[in-house]
Amino acid sequence: MGHIVAKFGGTSLAQSQQIKKVIKIVRSDPARIYVVVSAPGKRHPDDQKITDLFYEWQRHAALKLSSTEIRGLIEERYLEIIKGLGLSLDIKAEIDRIASEIKKGASPDYTASRGEYLNGKILAEALGYEFIDPAFCIFFQEDGRYGGDEKKLQAALKGKKAVIPGFYGSMPDGSIKTFSRGGSDITGAIVAKATRADTYENWTDVSGLRMADPRIVPNPKKIPVVTYRELRELSYMGATIFHEEAMFPVQNAKIPTHILNTNNPTDSGTLVVPDNDKSVERGSIAGIAGRKGFTTITVEKTLMNQEIGFVREVLSVVEHNDISFEHMPSGIDSISLVFDDRQLAGKTKKLVQEMRSACSPDTIEVNPNLALIAVVGRGMAYTPGVASKIFSSVSNAGINIRMINQGSSEISIIFGVHDADYDNAIRAVYKAFVRSEFAFQYNSGAQESNGRNGRNRS
Questions:
Q1: Which domain holds residue 320?
Q2: What's the structural domain count of the chain?
């Protein structure tokens, strides 16, 4: 009989009423034998996440400041949960032990991980499942990367129904080490891969992925099925509701991930499937995503294509300044590098000067205020007219395209527009592919922005 690994996020576990929903979901399917938990998240917009409170406790301790108030807030949250669930767990004794470790100089990783640890203890008791501490079965290497050794994790879980706190494991010396924020998703994926789960469920507060940002496109269509490769492309542009690194363990093991809503468990959500899945429609797109805050630096030189080592010299300058770039569209006599503004951070002038010195180009042009938009879909590959539909929709909206980049896999087309045109460009592309379900209106400034601060490049 197959099994499911179910991971629940912070909003799903923020208070006792939410945790009751989680308990009902777990008990509704006997295949959900492994449950991975986050720390309690926000109960309302002005609330604080428990993990943030633990970080604050750590900072106060390091500065020799009183942490009585912060500890009280943490205790209050967990006592509310325990009381609401009708449990008898002595959470104060647990917090006393944590306080003792913090006083003795526990690491920030140890302190931050205690939110998941305590929530795991609570949910294990509520479900009657065994509590498995990942400090003893999920291991990092000396360099801080996850080690990948699954043997102890498999042994710890074999034959049990278990709750596993997310977000952390341990270093070779036994000290606690956390993944980056949101790392409970990674723990869930690791458990799914180690136990050869049929499905990895990721329970959140939204009913799956949407084809576009709902802050830009009103009520965008849900993506029912998406491949891991498509999701990777969308995640790069910021369109994700779980940790990007959580894809790799389950993707490599060809385990589908089901993104579901704790508050609406009967909704079908979004199913993330292996890349060889045959369910993707030909000519379809999976989604549209994007980000603002990019700059292009275009280097032009006549007969650049005949000058051996020219591109290497340009990229050597970039490397020397410890900067990474996002894309590199080029022509016969020019090359454009697209940078995230956070990478440039005051280095633009120096970068241009060094490129001039190293390469002796005819011109170097810097164009800031660029937004990148990715249209992603495996069904786009080898389908005539998809690119035409994208660019015609943007042109008809009166928006100038400043850059185009398409990878050889043809799974995505990325184009750049001025920051001010970003929202309208996304709406235009969405309308082109989902006409019947979107009442489209341009912002009044769309036409005025035509041709501003840029030129077409391919």
A1: 287-449
A2: 2
